[in-house]
Design brief:
- By secondary structure, the chain is of the alpha/beta class.
- The chain has two domains: 95 residues, Alpha-Beta Plaits (2-Layer Sandwich); 255 residues, Alpha/Beta hydrolase fold, catalytic domain (Rossmann fold).
- 37% of the residues lie in helices and 22% in strands.
- It contains 14 helices and 13 strands.
- Helix 5 links the parallel strand 8 and strand 9.
- Keywords: Hydrolase.
- One of its GO terms (molecular function) is hydrolase activity.
Length: 372
Amino acid sequence: MLARTWRGVTKAEDADAYLTYLHQTGLTHYRRTPGNLAAYCLRKVEDGRAEFLLVTLWESMDAVKRFAGDTPERAIFFPEDDRYLIDRDEHVTHYEVPFAEGQAFVGHRVRFDDFRVAGPTGDLRLVDTGGGGKTLPVLFVHGLAGNASHWQAQLEHLAAAGRRGIALELRGHGGSTFPEPEDYTLESLAGDISGVVRALGLRRFVLVGHSISAGVALAYAGENPRQVAGLFLVDPMTDARRIPDPQREAFLASCDAPDVAQALRQDWAESAGPRADVREQLLADLEATPLPAVVATRRAWADFDLTAALGRYPGPKFSLVAPDNDTPRSLHRLAEGIPHQVVEGAGHWIQLDHPDAVNAALDAFLTKSAPA
């Protein structure tokens, strides 16, 4: 185990505002980084100055690098730090921890070990909480430019309840292999689910998909209806085939535009919802995902027949949606429709900014549609 320390100073009158800002940025990022064990903020106010000492505990240097990148000795700063800080350490200090006693966090912490299985185009990294007894496991699939950590709150919630949770990272995302040659059709991405199912020997399970991976989940479920006990979809993709042709052609053209990376960042920022910490995390995840993977998957969305895929899976389905996702093209409005619930005030990544609402809805779905 390692300890990481950093020191910064604000004016005394800014002490409370800066503490609030730390909760929105660094402290939240620490807690959400796989391999972080604890985060402490120490503060001393005297002589018109407020000194902050941040102490974090980590499983390993690899875990530290998930937060700090390949130069972990350099301090990480956020956009408003310059507004508050009048003195700061530009570098951090790392210590070995030869002894520690006590529980740093309350609740069940899921370890994000580097666990890999063979997929159709290379290794796939995943998280598996294990256990579960006789209850059906739940398999989570992240959205575009996401990774397994997007399901941290759901994995911990299920593990605390004694149910097995598994979160895979699709090809080209997180720690999974970038495919050669590139193949990002949603049907091909469904093959990644097949690879995990085979590797883990899953016979029957509940499948959860976010955003574009609602289409990936539907593609898999339509081909394997007996294995999928139910589909729980979080702010799922809409049906691109119902977009008027001029708009659809403009979207496809934008995928080849020189400023596509900048446009994607703007799109992510606008869709992230009201929480600054969630927005920062999502933009970092987008930056870490190879641009060709993001662009190719967006193209695949435009070609996917969501209505037909919806009709191929007859099992239980439920859609949890953000307020903006309630149009004639929305999944729950297609064909005969499916049950849905709107989460007020949520951005596109509902599982990150309203994890308790997602957990409660998932519990209700499991109880009603897939109890065993």
